[in-house]
Amino acid sequence: MSRFIAFIVVAVLSTAAYAEEFSVVEATIPEMQAAMEEGRVTSRDLVTAYLVRLGLYENTINAAISVSAKALDIADALDRERATGKVRGPLHGIPIAIKDNIHTTDIPTTAGTLALDGFVPPYDATLVRNLREGGAVIIAKTVLTEMANWMVLGMANNYSAVGGYAFNPYDTRRDPRSGLNDGRGVLPTGSSSSGAGTAASFWAANIGTETTTSIIGPASAAMLAAVKPTVGRISRWGVIPVTYDQDTAGPMTRTVTDAAILLGVLEGATPDPNDAETKRCAPPSDNDYTKYLKVDALKGARIGMPRAWFIDPYTLPGSDAPSGGVPADQKAMMDEVVAILRAAGATVIDPADIPSAMAETWEDNVLVRGSCSRKPSFRGDDAECSVVLKYGFKRDFTDWVATLGASAPVKSLTELREWNTANANLGTLKYAQRSLDVSDEQDLNSVVDRQRYDADRANDVRLAGAEGADAILQRHDLDALIFAGSRGSSFLAKAGYPSVNVPFGMVANGDGFPEGFIPKPAPMGVSFSGTACSEPRLLALAYAFEQATMRRRPPEF
Fold first, then answer.
1. Is 299 a catalytic residue?
2. Whose C-alpha in 143, 242, 256, 352 is 20 to 30 A from the C-alpha of 250?
């Protein structure tokens, strides 16, 4: 708790005056804005209250990898602006946390890896600049799985060499099961981003990043609303990459309204000259996504629910047995979701199975060729996997290092791997670094390697897009597809398609626990997914569903 003591001292001295008037626990961004407009609370008060909660509960959850030493000063400056009549927008004075692979020039950016410990980048990420210009107070960096989970498949979610193990606030105990009792939490955190601090009201909201499942997964696991945007809608400049083919940042919040507010600020009004892909989708007028939030948006909507593999087991090409599917309680949850949607006036096509997920040939099935990190698959053993992530990581990590100039803590992927090996006694290789290894063997100057990447990338996009999500959306004239939590995320990520998660249910947390240990239930959300640039419609549907259900509950810890 030592890193929070200074904050607690200040906070306790200044909390009494407003503590009975306004609570930050579960407070929404509009509620905080209204309280500041009415003079019932200041930005300094909000930051102080969140720092108190961090001081009280952080040792239990470990949601922050670092905390801003300037947050109170920034809040004071924003309060002075408000006093003169200047309000920058809906985030003015609102404390926000961001994932620790996103550049900030006033807080270290480490990606959880020891080679970057203490590293302060020479420039802010574009999304950080947008947040600052919008009046947000960046209060902390959130924990993450080291290198956004591109160290090794099987690393515990939200573990890093810098931050250690972090926990899901809905069950903060350690896993007692053999083979999993290495210090990790018993309740999974969802993927490389963390929603723990937002769920526990350590800040108003946080920004995660996703390559395959790491916004929707953690949001589902922490009973949060979230938007995984179309790749390119939010600039990736200044975000340590896995691969920019699939990487995106996105908001993780307690309500759909808060997520819509943040999405508009993160996107910015104009394309980023440092990221050409930001021309892919046009922002709404005034960057205001809240205008799409209508309580009756489900009336007349057409929604499809893929079942084959995504809910019900399905035998994939080359296999003799079914795979996929979900447990009975998750299936029952989705049946309830369908009933709620229909009662709200939506037409639900059930099943609405993904054509490329049911393709009978190995070459045309989107589910059979995973990333070459799964085995892991080194050169010569990668014919049956996609090289997109391993090739893209080396390419984009190399380009990212080049933007740092003389400040770069390592000059190449090879140097990072060698540093980790040389400093293994510090804990750099607790789970090894095989994902880095399979990436580093890629030759960016090789025509053969580039051709293989190009072919796999085109195949991924075709099977996830035109012959996957787009095919079923068009066949049934659908507005969206629905999935249990992040069940559809890896598939949709290949085409860079968006999803919006809504908090909904509680399901069983696995099995195999020792006698006497009773696991607490796991949160699970419902995600609404669509084609590129469909966030306005997805947010509308998600908001209407949220308002019809209101299932979010804060954690007790």
1. no
2. 352
Q: Cis omega before residue 376 (within 30°)? A: yes
214 is catalytic: yes
Higher pLDDT, 12 or 350: 350
Alpha helices in 270-387 (DSSP H): 328-343
Which residue in 66, 99, 220, 435 is the catalytic one?
Answer: 99
pLDDT at 373: 82
Is there a shared CATH topology between the 2-292 domain and the 302-485 domain?
Answer: yes
H/E element, 394: helix 388-402
Average pLDDT over residues 465-491: 98
Beta strands per DSSP E along 290-436:
302-304, 347-349
Compute the average pLDDT of residues 123-148: 98
CB 33 within 8 A of CB 89: no
- Written as one letter, the residue type at 244 is Y
Instruction: Give Cα 263 distance to the centre of its chain.
Output: 13
- Non-local (6+) Cβ contacts of 182 within 8 A are 156
Predicted TM-score (pTM) of this structure? 0.96
At 20 the pLDDT is: 52
Average pLDDT over residues 337-359: 98
Distance CA 370, CA 320 (A): 18
Alpha-carbon distance of 415 to 412, in angstroms, equals 5
The CATH number for 302-485, chosen from 3.90.180.10, 3.30.565.10, 3.40.630.30, 3.90.1300.10, is 3.90.1300.10
For residues 411 and 402, what is the distance between their CA atoms, to the nearest angstrom?
8
The alpha carbon dihedral of 313, 305, 499, 497 has a sign of positive
Residue 14: which pLDDT band, with cuts at 50, 70 and 90?
very low
CATH fold for domain 2-292:
Amidase signature (AS) enzymes (3.90.1300)
Task: Identify the three-state secondary structure at position 53.
Answer: helix
Burial of 175 (0-12, 13-18, 19+ CB in 10 A): buried
Helical spans, DSSP H, in 135-249: 146-149, 196-199, 216-221
**Identified catalytic residue from 201, 214, 435, 499:** 214
Domain ranges (residues) in the chain:
2-292, 302-485
**Mean pLDDT along residues 257-276:** 98
Q: Where are the beta strands (DSSP E) in 297-434?
A: 302-304, 347-349
- 99 labelled catalytic: yes
Q: Which of 68, 191, 499, 529 is catalytic?
A: 191
Per mean pLDDT, which range of 2-6, 42-46, 346-350 is the poorest? 2-6
